[in-house]
Input
Amino acid sequence: MKKCVSSLILCSILALTSACSSGNKQDQTNAKYTNKKSKITVYMPKGQYIDNKYFNNKDIAINYLPPVKGDFEQKEIDKIANSIDKNVKVLIISSKNKGLISVFDKVKKKLPGIITIAADMQESREDDSRNLRKDTNIEVAMNIDENRKARNIATLSSQMGANTFAYIYNKDSNDPEQYLDLSEAREYCNQSSIKFVEVPMSINDVKSGKIHEVTDKLVKENGKEIAVYTSEVKLTGDILKDSLKLGYIVPNINSDQDSLILAKELGLEKEMHSLKRKDFDEKVSSVLDKKNMKGRIAGLSESRQGITTEIAIETALYMYDKSFALEECYEDSSIRDRANQELGLLVEPQYSGSAYGYVRSIYLSPRIY
Output
């Protein structure tokens, strides 16, 4: 592959050390706004969870953004931009609030050679992401594709041994994609000879705890080889809890951060905070195996928004380790390989329209425990 001179120079100064210990773990509840710098510098929202291994790598600096209401103001933009100096080679920003695209613009003016990555920024989730896609100061932008995924989850259910797929949803939701999501899942099930069960719930039912009656009825009528999936985040914890009691399949926990629910239900809170992600996942599989549930639960131990941050970090590490050019690493095949080899994830980058840099929506399949 074509070598990049600038990357080769950077490679000589980038020593990769990825050790991890419980003494340097991330605090998900009391994270404060920081301004640490290293070769790869990351800014992400308070509470966003990524693998603990990144916090002990001296070439990676993880910073938490200040909690704000609404868009980021100019003072926050300036504070981040002014803190970035020539020692930072890659700047990764993930944000739930709009406004931080301006950081890239300011940084690029003073450091043209810095690599800028928008990892699931709020602007990428807007209906009109044209400004992000056309911004010449953003070289890479990725966001998790959350639209209409039930068909893929139904497919995964079949692979996990389910003969019935139950889709539980909030019928009072204003989500315009919900009908299409249902239709696509139903179509797949009909084509694959899988029984499809549609379970609409009102918002009052969601809040009332009626879900326990629903899951109990589903198992009584269909047996344990039923996969139960919900698009309603508020129900995800109860569905996992009932699965451990009733024995049905959960093909995608589908919460904002599945490890929080898994840790709570399996008694692994301490391990979640101290172990590397891979070690935590192995612990989850071990506990589920003892409960005769191995291979019947699928989810993601990272927070969903943190996945693109991890992919961006791993690809940057790979780029400097191999002395490859930016364009050779931030491409679909490389993103698939980094996610699979380093994160244990199956992902599929989705083209999201013409753009200045590499801009993709990432569909990901949950891990089967």
In short: The two ends are 36 Å apart (CA to CA). Residues 81 and 107 are 6 Å apart (CA to CA). The longest helix spans residues 304-322.
